[in-house]
Structure formats: structure tokens, C-alpha cells
Amino acid sequence: MKGNMNNMMKQMQKMQKKMMKAQDELHEMTFEASAGGGMVTVVANGKKEITDVQIKEEVIDPDDAEMLQDLILAATNDVLKQIDDKTNDTMGQFTKGLNMPGMF
Fold this sequence. Notes:
By secondary structure, the protein is of the alpha+beta class. About 55% of the residues lie in helices and about 15% in strands. The protein contains two helices and three strands, in the order αβββα. A three-stranded antiparallel beta sheet has the order 1-2-3. The protein starts with a helix and ends in a 9-residue tail after the last helix. InterPro entries: YbaB-like_sf (IPR036894), YbaB/EbfC (IPR004401).
């Protein structure tokens, strides 16, 4: 019985190392989304940190700041969704078959 417990603990430690490696790799990834046909582009890393925002000059209209704000929001929400989807896909492989709500 004790041998089974030690073996299970070793396997859990291996899985934990794999999870940490996968998470580190996710954090190093770059994600990009654009809105308005490429007028606004938002770049983020896997830690959900926005690293760059590019705005084409022709979309800057002082009389229509709301449109630019909407494009920035759309691109930002899209890039964050990409990160969430990739994180769920990558980290989900470790929790398949386990009922652990709110784990990721």
C-alpha cells in the first residue's frame, strides 16, 4: 500500500512539473488581434499583459473618438479570448477527467 502511495506521489510531481513547463511556455507566447479591418491591432503575451497597440492614422478622427474606443475594446477583448482559449486547451490536458471547477 505504501509503495502505491509513493508511486502516485512521484507521478503527481511529474505532472506538476509538466504543468509548470506548459504554463511557462504559454506565458512566453505572443497573441495578436485586430479590429476594423486591421485599423487597430493589439498584441499581448500569455500573461494577459498588453505589450503593443497599433492604431492606423486614418482611423484617428477627433470627431469620432467613440469609434476608435470601440475598435480598441474589440481588439483587446479578442486577444484576451485567444489567450483564454489557448490556456484552456493547453492546461486542460492535465485536468481531463478530473472534476476541478475553477482550476484554470
